[in-house]
Design goal:
InterPro entries: AMMECR1, AMMECR1_dom_sf, AMMECR1_domain, AMMECR1_N, AmmeMemoSam_A, Uncharacterised_MJ0810
CATH superfamily of the largest domain: Hypothetical protein ph0010, domain 1
CATH topology of the largest domain: Glycoprotein, Type 4 Pilin
Number of helices: 4
Number of strands: 9
Strand content: 25-35%
Structural class: alpha+beta
Order of helices and strands: HEEHEEEEHHEEE
Domain AMMECR1: 4-190
CATH class of the largest domain: Alpha Beta
Distance between the termini: 19 Å
Protein name: Protein A3207_07155
Organism: Candidatus Methanomassiliicoccus intestinalis
Pfam families: AMMECR1 (PF01871)
Amino acid sequence: MDEDEGTFAVQLARSAVDAEISNGKVNVENTSPLFNEKRGVFVTLKTYPDGELRGCIGFSEPVYPLADAIIMAAESACHDPRFNDLTAEETITVEVSVLTIPELLSVAPEDRPGAVEIGKDGLIVEQGYYKGLLLPQVATEWGWDSEEFLSHACAKAGLRSKAWKSLETRVFKFQAEIFSETSPSGDIRRYEEQ
């Protein structure tokens, strides 16, 4: 994803957020073929200027064309069930994470921490009906090592924190290209690994 595509992705998500809270409509005008490809994507909303999570919704699998997935994720992030619905009075920034296809960690459970690269890999943990996902930037933002990252992904899935040590638990990793606003509707930057 180049800088122009990343900028467009964030602008599209911003348009979808603005339209969702004002009952407006989003117009998609882009000629980049990337936005017609099916891709996994997450849209994260953060309060400004303190950067607290306000909503984060998306698709871990490539089930929709990227432009549609960004719009649906942005609209849904306005109604993240962990928070009250977003209002027009709130000041937020928008971040878009476009995902690679998740890859199963095919190593012994005790070797999983060594197979995860902090700042590069995101995690999906699955056990039965339980599933949790953490984006790559989360571990860096919280200063976690790979064992802590795995434990928090398990907790996000509703599992005990050490469930990643079990053969019954499947762990996937993925990477993401991440672009975000530096201020509400402001400049857009690519996330760099810390």
